[in-house]
Amino acid sequence: MTILKIVEHPAAILETKCRPVTTFNSELKRLVRDMQETMIEADGVGLAAPQIGMDIRLAIVDVEDEHGLIVLVNPELIASSGSQTDIEGCLSFPELYGIVTRPNAINIKAQNVKGQMFTFQAEGFLARAILHEMDHLDGILFTSKVEKYIPSEELERVDS
Ligand SMILES: [Zn+2]
Asked: Which residues hold Fe cation (predicted)?
């Protein structure tokens, strides 16, 4: 496995709308494993392909709950409800944290690394992490949603 270089802001790739993944092969599986290694090494809870320099609709999330690693290929939001307001960070913005409001519960569909379609429901912090990564695939950065920045010394790390 390989630790990949995480792209940090500012970079055009981070503000690019990514293209769908159409080929589900061993290269994609290897990329997912490398992204997982990279996310763990960086102590993050999620990582999107543009953050490692690729403009494809692939993201991973692992908030260390019972779901373990969630691989999202071509994810789409089907429904959302409620709202939550909490602190977010991003591996592409080291030491930057802010308050972001997002839906509290989501229903998404996506493909797995084999190309099989699945639906998934999440709420709370897991929903937040998934929505943060899905935003990356549309070139949307959390800074566009921050209501208030928080000095990093006041926080535990919550990067995605
Ligand atoms: Zn991020």
From this structure: 90, 132, 136
Residue 136 counted as an annotated binding residue: yes
d(CA 79, CA 87): 23
Between the CA of 16 and the centroid of ligand 1 the distance, in Å, is 13
Confidence bin at 160 (pLDDT 50/70/90): low
**What's the CA gap between 143 and 122, in Å, rounded?**
23
* Catalytic positions, written as ranges: 133
| Domain edges within the chain | 12-154
| Domain 12-154, CATH class in plain words | alpha beta
CA of 91 to the centre of ligand 1 (A): 6
Digit-coded pLDDT (tens) for 35-89: 999 999 999 999 999 999 999 999 999 999 999 999 999 999 999 999 999 999 9
pLDDT score for 102: 98
DSSP bridge pairs for 89 = 97
- Residue 18, marked binder: no
Compute, in angstroms, the gap from residue 57 CA to the centroid of ligand 1. Answer: 14
98, 143 in Cβ contact below 8 A?
yes
